[in-house]
Amino acid sequence: MTATTPLTERYISATIRSLRPETQADVRAELEASIADAIEARLDQGEAPEAAERAVLTELGDPGALAAGYADRPLYLIGPRFYLTWWRLLKLLLAIVPVCVLGGVAVGQTISGAPVGEIISTSILATGGAILHLCFWTTLVFVILERSNSATAIEEWDLDQLPEPTQNGAGRSELIASLVFLGIAVGALLWDRFRGFVSVDGEALPILDPQLWPWGIGVLFLLIVAEAVFAVVLFRRGRWSTGLAVANTILALAFLGWVLVLLLGGDLVNPAFLAHLTAAGGEGFAAGQAESAGEGGVFRILAVLLGFGIAAGVVWDIVDGWIKTARAPRV
What we know:
single chain; mainly alpha; 3 domains; two-stranded antiparallel ribbon; 11 helices; 2 strands; globular
């Protein structure tokens, strides 16, 4: 075989992704050569190319176990039988459940009007409890499976479980998508101000507070321009670096700060637009406002949800940048 096929590339990518960046190139070259030689030997015996490739990769086994051999990293829980399955499931649960618990408890405490200290302490305690329960119960299940000598399908691995290769750099499509999104954001801001997404009696009713123009919106335009410059620089570099991750963090936090300052001060949304919503909602909306008065009303609840939603997106953007930086090859 003169070129690496998509299936072989998926297998190699899945194997080297957990290795140290400085060793990935050597391991990749070694695997490409050994896999090609093994496939060539099977082709000489008359096997079809696709069947030969699948047979060779299946014989190599789970890429996680192969990577552990290259890294000289033992795989043990109580024993090695279910280690990889346990570890993958636990990582997935720890990446999802604690974040949901933290966000849910924080949102609930904020809506109920709890003090900041109580919001933080309650959220941290709930998250810590969730992590402990996840680790204990997930591990206990696999200990029972192993101790009971359970023969289940979870210990079997095949090629269909190979993940797609991850792209840690910045391709042309990512650059175009970023610039298009930023352009749409600028267009939406201008449309809201001069044409309006809502019209009342033939007149535009902006959603954002008109008092934000020009200085408040000017700051947002500067952040959008900075994001566009960042996207271009990232594309030209072709990979993430510590400096780019820091810049991405600063831009994300600056945007979050801009939103939260205006949102908490009641200066983000046009008061006339809120009054229009109240009037259009009728008696049912007024009843909802009265019922939620203890939490500040429906609009305050929506503001809290909006703030937490934006914060979650910003945190993910920051974390994603640092993950890509850690995975980027060293040059």
